[in-house]
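Summary for the steering committee. One of the milestones for this cycle was to obtain a three-dimensional model of the protein with flavin-adenine dinucleotide bound, which we needed before selecting residues for the alanine scan. The sequence and ligand used are listed below.
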Amino acid sequence: MSVTLPKALPRSLCRQLAGIEDVVWFKKDLRVLDHPPLVEASQRGPVVACYLLEPSLLGAPDADALHWNFARQALEELADALALRGAPLLVLHGEAVECFAHLRESLGFKRLWSHEETGNTLTYRRDRAVAVWSQNEGISWQEYPNNAVVRALRNRDTWSAEWNRRMRPEPLDAPAKLGKWRGPALPLGALPPADALKLTPFAERTPTVQKGGTSAGLRRLDAFLNGRGRDYSKRMSSPATAWSSCSRLSPYLTHGCVSMRMAVHLATDGLARLKAMRRAERPIQLGSVSAFLGRCHWHCHFIQKLESEPRAEHSNFHRGFEGLRDDGPSDDVLAQFLAGQTGFPFVDACLRSLRATGWINFRMRAMLTSFAAFPLWLDWRRFRDPLARCFIDYEPGIHISQLQMQSGVTGINTVRIYNPIKQGLDHDPDGSFTRRWVPEVAALPSELIHTPWKAGAFMLEAKGIQLGRTYPKPMIDLSSSLRQARAKLGAARRADSFRSENQRVYQKHGSRKGSATRRHHGRDAAIFNRPKPTEPPKPKSNQLELFP
Ligand SMILES: Cc1cc2nc3c(=O)[nH]c(=O)nc-3n(C[C@H](O)[C@H](O)[C@H](O)COP(=O)(O)OP(=O)(O)OC[C@H]3O[C@@H](n4cnc5c(N)ncnc54)[C@H](O)[C@@H]3O)c2cc1C
């Protein structure tokens, strides 16, 4: 099946839309609530909304059917919400400038409205091309911030204040009226399935994959704030409990079904309500809501890093680490890791679960990255795109910054090397999560489920397990691989130029976070604003921290 969406509009549609001067371009902001460009455009006159299926982005190595399926559901809901207000959603297939040129020819529109996007090199170049085209065509293109990420940020010290300033205003209502359109919500036809766009899934997915749309996102957040997030702080680390105890808001933020400001306001209001209750009556602890709000801040903090230094998509934040893993292993090692066939059951369980569901909790993402980067000694750029394809919430700014941080190449963060066996014992002590995803070793008792190689020959025989045949033997010797990784990383950190580059990275990207809760808009909110240090934290003699 191939895609049949047009690049240009049929004549009859052009006639119906003739004279409309304002086009709102939806990208990663698939909502009508709290959408400043939509509100501003609607105040000028009737609006046409558009969404572009860009072949260059759909064919990129980080694109996956997982992302499109989520966006497609969100777009269907968005189209209905727009149609209800009198605007059609035109979904066009083509590169941005080409599509806008056709729209210009068909409608003669004068103004283009959109949110800013911090994506990758492709979206940056695309936006540059649209800016040049708009200027040449005399079209005014108005872009609005989508969150607290600041374009052309001069000084990181002022960033937290900017976060407060952007999050403070009440989220905007959806415009009541966008035009007089009475036709179908998607006048150019139904949205194509992933295979029509030549998008393949990285792995087979289960029906538990999250569904797109603002209503689904708001329901998730509401349920989290009203009880599901109870014990969030305690339950977020285990992949088994995090599944239901984390907010699971990330794909809705990534695709913009829910704005960051909406999330922050809903949580802040929730916090105020909780405070008015007696402790025993609270459906969720104050600390859990504060912890959630703190993470909303991190969301923008990490995207800001890529916005401020786009070269980080392809290079280490700390240039002193360039070439560090040039002696990394063959692609077979990478393939074994990505397939969840490492021979370490907890690592394999996390990977297989991620592949199947599109989500895993933060700690396990960190452990997976650490496992790939340290004992396997893989450069993060080798697994950047495959993992991006596994995450339903794939957000380049967070993904790239976190991969680098967990691989130890930012220079400014404490390096944490997770021991996957200890992580399994701590976060899946009875082995139920591991058993579910690695049935090959499910018959082992809990004390051996994370280390099947320690089971005696009789035990393995009795349980029908043949290491190397029914389940892989560990693909590396963990202790010696970790020793070598620590030695190589330590040597790079002792290089003469390490300190000065460290200083540069800290000035540009370092977190100036502070006390967890401070007054915000007359309410308490988890807005981090610690007095700014001007120096990076002093490197300790050994900053490698083997996470037990
Ligand atoms: C290697 C790696 C890659 C990651 N890639 C992504 C990604 O592509 N997209 C993404 O949204 N998150 C990413 N994260 C961060 C984090 O794992 C997810 O945001 C979180 O697991 C999403 O689940 P949740 O919505 O239930 O989070 P919650 O714990 O409920 O947190 C609420 C929100 O805060 C934000 N958040 C939480 N933790 C972090 C964090 N450590 N850094 C930045 N923002 C955070 C997210 O927007 C999240 O939705 C990555 C982490 C690692 C270690």
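Key point for the committee: The chain is about 45% helix and 5% strand.
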